[in-house]
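Encode chain A's predicted structure.
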Amino acid sequence: SDYDAVALDFDNTLVQYNLTSLFHFHYSYLSKYLIEKKRYHGLQSVMNKEDIDFIRRGLFMDFKRGNVLDISAEGIIITASHGTKKLSKQEIIELYGPEMRWSITDLFIKDKLALWEGPASNETRTFLDYTDITGTLVFAKAIDLLDENKEGDYSMVWPHLLQAIIDMYRMESDFTNTILSNMPLYIHKCDSEVMEFLKKLKQNCKLLLITGSPHILVNKIADHALGTGWENFFHTIIYSAKKPAFFTDNNIPFLDTNDHKMEMRSSQGIYQRGNWSELYKTMEHELGRPAKCVYVGDSVIQDVY
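Encoded structure for chain A:
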């Protein structure tokens, strides 16, 4: 290996999901929550075949206008819709000006973390992960419903949707329980060639699994996708890593599997939380020289930015 250490993400990197099934379930769960808990009566509760084409990573929701924007790397609005209704170029210009730019997404172009907190977080959100991008479609459908009911205030759609997403990913939620009870429908088995590759990789470098997911969830999914004893593929497993803060905040302590704070004395083992700086220093000490490392994930911004 060209590296002393190779670290892998878990969801959508090592483990692959049946995205079509997952998106349909995401949509039905989130829409049901809005209908039953937030009184979005009349909201479409099941995705149709055409709806899946609306789902893409990196779309921006304009909370106040009820729009969904697709922007270029330079910040120019390429396409836009109001709810699910596509806007013409002229309509985009009327809303966002002749340069077809939005000052809020311009902040994102300058600083990829600008939208996660502060005033801008009240204006927009973009989904960058397969675990939540169906939320963009639910947002758009909710806007469609409000328009049908001639309700022009869209301000609560995002707060309500965010509550639904948080509820969906509770460990005890019906969503989580259904996924774990029907894993063949939602989670692919890992290819045997990938597992052979992991074995060879471990022989030539330190192999780490660094995931933001909790150990209870990871263990059950990994047993299905990789088989029992999957832990033996790795020198190091770190659960509940608060990425990207794991790579940027040196003050997050490591915990053992019983949630007790601990100091990392060996890079080999099973841990929770923690930070890259302490892990790297430990590997550096073990090697007796600077370590060359690489992290492989599915979202640069949400994993390591």
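The first helix runs from residue 19 to 38.
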